[in-house]
Amino acid sequence: MSKKSNKKPDVLLYASPNNSADMRWFAHFACGDAFIAFTAKGKRIAAITMLEIVRCRKESNFDVVLDMAEELAKLRETQPDAGMPELIVDLAKRYGAESFRVPPDFPSGLFVTLHKLGLKLEVGGTPFFPQRVVKTEEELEYIRAGNRASCAGFKAVEKILKAATIDKKGFLKYEGKTLTSERLRMAIEHACLDAGGINVEGLIAASGEQGVDCHCSGFGPIRANSLIVCDIFPRIAATGYFGDMTRTYLKGKASPEQRRLVDSVKQAHDAAIARIKAGVTGVSVYRATVDFFEKLGYKAGYVDGVPTGFFHGLGHGVGLNVHEAPNMGGRSLASEKLRENMVVTVEPGLYYPGIGGCRIEDVVVVRKDGCELLSNHPYKWEIA
After folding, report:
1. Number of other residues whose CB lies within 10 A of the CB of residue 271
2. Which end of the chain is more exposed for a tag (fewer CB within 10 A), N or C?
């Protein structure tokens, strides 16, 4: 019987670190252009454009950094029509890599051509680099910085809402103009930028019925006495890591239904955080939250075709992607346990037409006997 090899398969990536979290993590380097990166005989090797080669050699964790254009020119001396696929095959032979595992989002056209050229390839799973799921202390600090940028956005919202007045028609006025979701988002963008964050994925400042549609960005004038869902998830430009937090606000006076809704979400948020620790499953924390809301009479369903109640997952991983493993929702497997130093959001929410939407979200790191907040901002939501 042959012994099973413990050798890790070599990996091959072709992507831009700015658009691929796997490449950003693997390279420890940021740039806008796609380049070749692979492992061979324990080394990390890159072939990159001349524009990026000096920075890459200084900043990245590659053992070998090649000039892509120079390597291609050498290859064309014997293969005049050689392109990127032929260069990858040539480099694999030169550095002794017999086969590669590629990520699920590897360019399909390139995959087919490499296969035709005889390079052995297999598609890896998700996450492609399982090591990314458990964060280092350095990565935790990067995520804290992302959440500090989120908090800067909330402070900007609170400043505007405190200064806003209510006109005769029930709309909010700020600096002589009707306050809109667009104006709130602009203020959030500026505040996050000042804190080093960029909202590359967009952000949410949705009020009233728009807040019931939980991923609606929000648009148009904001009415007094309406719930305003603000979901802010900036990426720190210097590191590529995200923060992700949500707070819900109301300018004016809340109705009893709104107050009960927000109080229930906060209780669910606190209870979920108290349950999270290494060894528990994400789906068990999610189901406990579903049960909690149902006991209060908040059942998920549809009203005139609109999803209502708590109809989304409880949370997800955060890192170089704003949504990554692990998952804390109904799709999670019962066998998938949270591990120490995993990072997850905790974001219960309730959404009902006529009342509004409320979501409260923080980010925690899983520890042995509990979890630790990586985000810190007050929950005061009703602003007179």
Report:
1. 15
2. N
2: confidence class by pLDDT, cuts 50, 70, 90: very low
Two structure tokens written together for 63: 């053992």
Could you tell me the CA-to-CA distances from 154 to 136, 177, 192, 215, 249 in Å, in that order?
27, 21, 9, 18, 10
DSSP labels for 311-327? -S-SEEE-SSSSSEEEE
pLDDT band at 6 (very low <50, low <70, confident <90, very high): low
Q: What does the pLDDT look like over 64-108, one tens digit per residue?
A: 999 999 999 999 999 999 999 999 999 999 999 999 999 999 999
Report the alpha-carbon distance of residue 142 to residue 24 in Å, rounded: 14
Name the residue type at position 349: G
Close Cβ partners of 141 (under 8 Å, ≥ 6 residues apart): none
DSSP line for 179-244:
-BHHHHHHHHHHHHHHTTEE-TT--EEEEGGGGGSTT----SB-BTT-EEEEEE-PEETTT--B--
What are the tokens at 193? Answer: 């930028």
Does 315 score more than 60 pLDDT?
yes
Q: Is the four-CA dihedral 335, 338, 230, 295 of positive or negative sign?
A: positive
Tokens matching residue 39: 């492992």
Q: What is the C-alpha to C-alpha distance for residues 249 and 102, in angstroms, rounded to an integer?
A: 44
User: Is 234 within 8 Å of 150 (Cβ atoms)?
Assistant: yes
pLDDT tens for each residue of 240-296 = 999 999 999 999 999 999 999 999 999 999 999 999 999 999 999 999 999 999 999
CA distance 347 to 349: 6
Residue 72: strand, helix, or coil: helix
Q: Shortest CA distance to 273 belongs to which of 184, 382, 208, 370? A: 370
For the chain, helix, strand, coil in percent to 5 are 35, 25, 40
Confidence of residue 331 (pLDDT cuts 50, 70, 90): confident
Structure tokens at 9: 């398969």
